[in-house]
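Quick start: read one record
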Amino acid sequence: MKTKFLLLSTCITMSFLISCNSDEKTNDGTETAITNEEILKNSQIDATVDDVTNIAEDQFSSQLNIAAKASGPIKNFLPSCATVTTVLTNNTWTKTVDFGVEGCTLNNGNTVKGKMVVSFSNDFNASTQTISYTFEGFYHNGRKLQGSKSIVRTIKETSLLVTAHPVSTASIDLTITFDDGGVYTRKGTLIKEMTSGYDTWFDWDDNVFVVTGSGSTTFPNGDTFSAEITTPLEFNAACRKSFAVKGIVSVTKNGASATLDYGNGECDTFATVTKDGVTEEIDLKK
């Protein structure tokens, strides 16, 4: 069931005006309420971060498989409309992924255009690799991305999985400009574990990722929206969605708090938001 949220632009009576103001602000006029619109904006940025991370990691994995002389039907994350230019200079691979000026549609339905430049060392025997990337006129679902990001990738055992598997720690420092001109900044650290599909390099769709970490988003009005993953988020590539299918995120803003619950594993874009003891369902794709 989809839930629609309407923003009331006016209050009809003086008593209702007082009620609206008391829900939105403290006595000194500081806004404290976390709105569903803010949660949706933050989730859209989450989806953007997830996609660009996958693009970068996919480019690393594809070069790794070439170096290993792997053979077989490779199913990459990139759509066929993307072109990749690969250069090796001073033992460093630089891969420019060009989605064109018209853009491409990823297999999860999100659209991208412009370029991502991904770089990493040619030493694939190293236990730890750093994957860096930047943007050149890059847009995700019409939102412009600027800044840089690095991913430290290690093969190791963890408490989630005793078999050695890829674990990536991503440092995020991005500026996202929405199509309405609103500028948002995202900073944080995410730890992403590939708990399934790491031994079938030729098939992206059987990949399952578990993500932990925290971050903050500064909104155009200066408010800071902080988020912490309190129950690990699970992403299932077979769902072809850029949203988690499981997990819980705790969010705070100006002293107010809310929780976002992604559910129990169903391949959909719905989540439940709990604020002040009230729980409601929202569609993150809105």
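The radius of gyration is 20 Å.
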